[in-house]
Amino acid sequence: MKFDKETLSYIVPNSEENGFSPIVRRLGDEREPASFDKLKTIHDIFWNTATENPNTPFVGHRPFDPKTNSFLPYQFMTYGEVAKRADNLGSGIIHIAQKRSSTPEEKETVNSRNWCVAIYSINRPEWRIVDHALPTQSLYSVALYDTLGESSTEYILNHSDALIVFCSLDKVSKLLQMLPNTPKIKAIICMDDIHSQKARNPPVHIPSPFNTTSIDVLKSWAGSLNIGLYDMKEVEAIGAADKIEQHLPKLTDIYTLLYTSGTTGNPKGVVTTHHNYTESTKTFYITRSHLSKPVYISYLPLAHCYGRSMENYVVLSGGQIGYFCGDVPRILEDCRALQPTYFPGVPRLLNRFYDMMSSIIENTPGVMGEISRRALSEKLVNLRSGKGNTHPIWDNLVFNKLKALISSNLDSMFSGSAPAEPRVLDFFRVVLSVQVSEGFGMTENAACVTGQLPTDLTSGNIGVPLPRVEIRLRSVPEMNYYVEDEPCARGELLIRTTANFREYLKEKEKTDEVMIGDRWFATGDIAKINSNGTISIIDRKKSIFKLSQGEYVAPERLENVLSKQPLILQSFIYGNSRQNHIVAVIVPDPAVFIPWATSLLKSKNEVLDDLSLESLTKNETVKHHFLLETQKLSRESKVQGFEIVKSIHLEHVPFDIEVNKLLTPTMKLKRFDAAKYYVDVIEKLYSS
Q1: Is the pLDDT of residue 87 over 50?
Q2: pTM of the entire structure?
Q3: Domain 545-687 sits in which CATH superfamily?
């Protein structure tokens, strides 16, 4: 394996082993400030910032005004105010847990600390207050996705041994319904005010259906179950009245449990320590130190490592966090109200922004439209020829107005969680005229693996190893990926970093499967190391299956190919070792599919009284021509013959999280569940 002279990484000498590539590290010497030496835990990071910047605005939200049915401007709490509330809350949690413990063993567990508290809510300032309160008493969190279904929530609460749950008001009734199946829970602490006179009106954080009567019912219900129901302000008051001194964590203590949204079976509880997340936080700071005191819009779920790590980085930087109003379609409204300098993106949302902004450029009439389209074309040419992403004329004349749709103060955008389309990244680089970079991380390493350098304006790669991170590849013969491949080494991506997790909770066998050799984490992702030292994810190992003639199929890669077809919204590709070809369940995109199918039937002189999505997906003519379109795209994408779908089922009901439960909270397809859900459909596809 060799790199170009203009490389962005370096190969560790004499680090090759049979079946493994050499070890690759980041090029350069980016050292952390000396003052960071004293920061050993996430608690240290927050308390250091709060001590140095007590009056700096920290967390903000937009209160909801029921009179006008609208959200008001952002209101912020300072670092000092949050520190005081966190200190009181930590003390109050211990008091509540002691009060609700009924046996000597339970009391001993509470007093010895290092036990789990669940957080079940959308992103909001109280989420962060709880997150900073728990370490003051050496407690740790388990974060629950706001969108989790009942069975997954019950499983995580029981598996994590959580004793107390913090939640928003809308989750209280759901939790009370689960309590007969979650016997370890002692108390529910509501983030919204449920005891004061103000609670007799709708809460100010979010529009709420709750009123006096329903809150009284919740209190009575909790009492009948012998469960404590408190609100946060009440617990803070308890803690302040009888202060329990802080009981601080060690760097090896658990900071948080994040459950990976497994695509098969139950989710795995990833145990990460204060050391893991502190190292990750420092690493992000080093690579973003040019973004002094960022203003950050928080909408990425805090049950996901990406959102959690980004907020910890903002805390270390002494920046501000503005929480979205709870409605992702209104995220641009929140951005314009907050004016963030840093926007964390995910491909799904960036694609929506892209569709909206590119449509504006495409459809602007007259001279201004011609100028806008010329400006975009010229800047894209400049970008791809290495001339940068700014322009002295076009930016002021055209693109600053588009940038203002997000934030006029924006100076950085980052995309993570899944591969982004290169055309989308390039579009934002030239339209926003800011650093737009892509990176890679996982729950098992606190989101800290790779990232593009500020000077890297290319697409199609996830950058280079971050400081403190080493990567290498190992050959995967069954998929024909080898570290000796030319021109680029290919294989499974392995990661070694100080941010690597401790273990999967109560699952040593699964931990041992992925932690190999000298603490290398096997990701299950197939990558290639490019000649300039950057890394590209090209495939996925874990979801592969073998056909009857011995060919291996990677369905995720093929689904990514199909996703380029505008007719397709979602797809599930299936095969097994008893069959010699693959089949697919495809959810069409109604906005594109219905006009296409209607036009197709008209051209065939076929009359259909019902032109609904459901009716069109059942039409045999439509299905036949839809299959031809997918096969045409597959051939154009140069996939192997055995990788071309031979039969399809058109599904009018999208895969989702709550109804058919075929998606994880991070919008990944649950293959095992999908195969069971569509077992009859799949059998019919193979028999036809």
Answers
A1: yes
A2: 0.83
A3: ANL, C-terminal domain (3.30.300.30)
